[in-house]
Design a protein that fits this description.
mainly beta; 24-stranded mixed beta sheet; elongated
């Protein structure tokens, strides 16, 4: 029993040593380069196994920090493998800052020679970027301009960015906040969270949920396999899912929402041109009272409360007619129960 305990202690100490080495590699830049910030108008960064961070917080100097690591490897082994098998190109040319890490030859066995090479880049705020990594996350913040970035296996984080924002990940989540103008973000396998953003916003995921808070503008959110939740949205909202529920609260503007796999609840604070809801599950719509509407509601059972000054036909499975003098188009279609409330 004593031998087993001693062996366990030895294994734990070794694991802690390897973890400490890896953490030390991540905390300490392998190399650092500085350039005059005034000469930089764009950034191009690429790596195959690490993350990329670009922050528009540079003072008089733009800085590139390179982090190199590999779990359970000593610093010496990491350095030797890097020198023998990789090239790191960091330079400024024609107003563009380049930070590129790539292998000298194709690495057939990642388990033997693969390294995580990450970039942390500080540049002026008004800088465009073109970023790519096949295995890590991308984080951009405090930038203005055209931002194009993609990763095959990591998450995307966008904070305080304005301009043309186009980001894609094949397997990670997306978080965007305090950003504006033209936002186009896609993921094949993760969730999306967007808050405090404005402009033309396109959010698409093939396998996760979408959560939106305090957005304004023209918003298009779609998912093939998750739920959609929105709170305090002002503008035009198009939301669609084939596999989850839809919850829209505090919406001002126009809504076009669809789901074929869950329930739907829509609470309108103010309505402009239309509300179109299509669902195979139960649907509840809440509208401001005292306004004019053109109603067309279909379901296997239709219920309403608080409706006044209505002219038209009310049946157990449909409501069609006008409220007040008419106006905003309200079109609700579901194969289940439809509930319409005027508040």
């Amino acid at each position: 029993m004593k031998k087993i305990n001693l062996l366990l202690v030895s294994v734990l100490l070794s694991a802690n040593l390897f973890t400490a080495r890896s953490n030390e590699q991540q905390r300490t830049p392998f190399m650092t380069h500085s350039f005059s910030a005034s000469s930089i108008r764009a950034v191009e960064a690429a790596t195959s196994g690490g993350s990329i961070t670009v922050n528009g917080d540079a003072g008089s100097e733009a800085i590139v920090e390179v982090y190199v690591s590999r779990d359970n490897w000593s610093t010496e082994r990491v350095k030797q493998t890097l020198e023998e098998n990789y090239t790191i190109d960091i330079r400024v040319e024609g107003g563009k800052l380049y930070a590129v890490a790539k292998s000298k030859n194709r690495i057939a066995n990642w388990n033997q020679l693969g390294l995580s090479i990450s970039f942390k880049i500080s540049v002026p705020k008004q800088v465009a970027s073109n970023l790519s990594t096949s295995g890590g996350s991308i984080h951009i913040a405090h930038l203005t301009g055209s931002q194009d970035f993609k990763t095959s296996g990591g998450s995307l984080t966008i904070e305080h960015v304005s301009g043309k924002i186009a980001g894609t990940t094949s397997g990670g989540s997306i978080t965007v906040s305090n950003s504006s103008d033209n936002i186009d973000l896609k993921t094949s396998g993760g969730s999306i969270k967007a808050n405090d953003c404005s402009g033309k916003i396109n959010l698409k995921t093939s396998g996760g949920s979408i959560k939106m808070d305090n957005l304004s503008g023209n918003i298009d959110a779609s998912t093939s396999g998750g739920s959609i939740t929105a709170n305090d949205v002002n503008g035009t909202l198009k939301a669609g899912t084939t596999g989850g529920s839809v919850r829209l609260n505090g919406i001002s503007g126009s809504v076009d929402a669809k789901t074929s796999g869950g329930s739907m609840t829509v609470d309108m604070e103010a309505v402009s041109d239309y509300v179109k809801l299509s669902n195979s599950g139960s649907t509840h719509l809440s509208l401001p009272s005292g306004k004019g509407y053109n109603l067309k509601v279909r379901g296997n059972k239709v219920e309403t409360s608080g409706m006044k000054d209505f002219r038209g036909n009310i049946e157990s499975r449909s409501i069609e007619g006008t409220v007040g003098a008419g106006g905003t188009e309200i079109d609700v279609r579901t194969s289940q129960r439809a509930s319409l409330t005027f508040k």
